[in-house]
Amino acid sequence: MEMINGKTRTCGLIGNPVEHTMSPAIHNTLAEKCGHNLVYVPFFVEERQVADAVKGAYALNILGLNVTVPYKSEVIKSLVEVDELAAKIGAVNTLVRTQGGYKGYNTDMSGLQRAMESEGIRIEGEEIILLGAGGASRAVAYLCASKKAKKVYMLNRTFDKAQKVAEEVNKAFGCEIIVPMLLSDYPKLPDGKFLTIQGTSVGLAPNDNEAVIEDTAFYQKVHTGFDLVYRPFTTRFMKLVKEAGGQAYNGLKMLLYQGVNAYELWNQVEISDKEADAVYAKLKEEMGL
Ligand code: ATR
Fold first, then answer.
1. Which of 47, 131, 174, 246 could be stapled to 241 by a disulfide with Cβ–Cβ 3.0 to 4.6 Å?
2. Which residues of 141-150 are buried (b: 16+ CB within 10 A; e: fewer)?
3. How confident is the model at residue 84 (pLDDT cuts 50, 70, 90)?
4. Which atom of ligand 1 is least distant from the CA of 138?
5. Per-residue pLDDT tens digits for 197-219
6. Could you report the per-residue pLDDT of 23-59, keeping only the tens digit for each?
7. Of all protein residues, whose CA lies closest to atom 26 belonging to ligand 1?
8. Are 211 and 241 in contact (CB under 8 A)?
9. What does the CA dihedral 58, 62, 68, 69 come to, rounded to 10 degrees?
């Protein structure tokens, strides 16, 4: 970071809690690499103070904000505009300063897409298995539909939740892309090899030795496994994918690119994958790797 002076611009993160965030590492590293006079700081925001926080941030000339749990939906009513995909998902994680207020985006999803692209993984035309139907998996279902996946088998422990998400996404896109299934019905999946996105909270540290499906037969259906979890760095799901001969990735690049995409929106610059790699190294360092 340059010396903070009268021209320094501020960006930050609002959430509750915010202490464990790695976003400052992403944005302050990018500012340094780009030679921008910008600082990024965490802002702890109390429940019921989100609207005040956004209004205050605007009054303070804050350039941009990230929004994390639990405010990604609630913040929408404080915005002047919302990007189309973010509006469909009903969740935003990035606010960009515009005339009269902030515009909301969902760079969690554009970041996931970019992370997958950077690894050579396609969504368009693919048949995909999506594990989970919570907030994260629901957003992934929207991304897959918007990027024209051929089919998404959404498997969840609670079938009703998968069914509800499937109905909602299919309706939003006027298609029948999302097929809800009960998690334990995985033996009924069609033959073939699939890109499989792991969107449940199973396997998240400290429960490192858990995977949402243990059966090795299931992993024969996986050519590429993408776990949204990045703590631990190699999840049990990833190990099972690799043992069955597939390629496996964790969610750290998704975190990286949600930040990179937000930074690009705030500063109207393009960050190359090579520049992003330097930030990725910094994130691994933050994780003690
Ligand atoms: P997030 O916002 O991170 O997606 P969430 O909305 O609480 O978190 O969703 C958690 C997901 O993990 C859900 O799909 C949940 O399945 P249910 O809808 O049946 O609860 C899934 N999940 C959590 N613990 C699980 C477990 N032990 N076995 C299978 N699925 C589990």
1. 246
2. bbbbbbbebe
3. very high
4. 4
5. 999 999 999 999 999 999 999 99
6. 999 999 999 999 999 999 999 999 999 999 999 999 9
7. 202
8. no
9. -40
Nearest CA to ligand 1 atom 6: 134
Q: What is the dihedral of CA 103, 24, 255, 77, to 10 degrees?
A: -30
- pTM, two decimal places: 0.96
Mean of per-residue pLDDT scores for the chain: 97
- The H or E element containing residue 171 is helix 159-173
Rounded distance, CA 34 to CA 30, Å?
A: 6
CA of 10 to the centre of ligand 1 (A): 35
**Angle of the 252-267 helix axis to the 23-34 helix axis, nearest 10:** 50
Residue 255 — very low, low, confident or very high, per pLDDT cuts 50/70/90? very high
Q: How remote is the CA of residue 198 from the centroid of ligand 1, in Å?
A: 11
CA distance linking residue 22 with residue 215, whole number of Å: 34
Q: Atom 21 (ligand 1): residue with closest C-alpha?
A: 200
For position 2, what pLDDT does the model report? 57
Cα 154 to ligand 1 centroid, rounded to whole Å: 12
Q: Which candidate in 72, 88, 221, 282 is catalytic?
A: 72
Q: Give the residue, by CA position, lying nearest to ligand 1 atom 5.
A: 134
Report the separation in Å between the CA atom of 157 and the middle of ligand 1, taken as the mean of its atom positions: 8
Closest CA to 238 of 262, 263, 213: 213
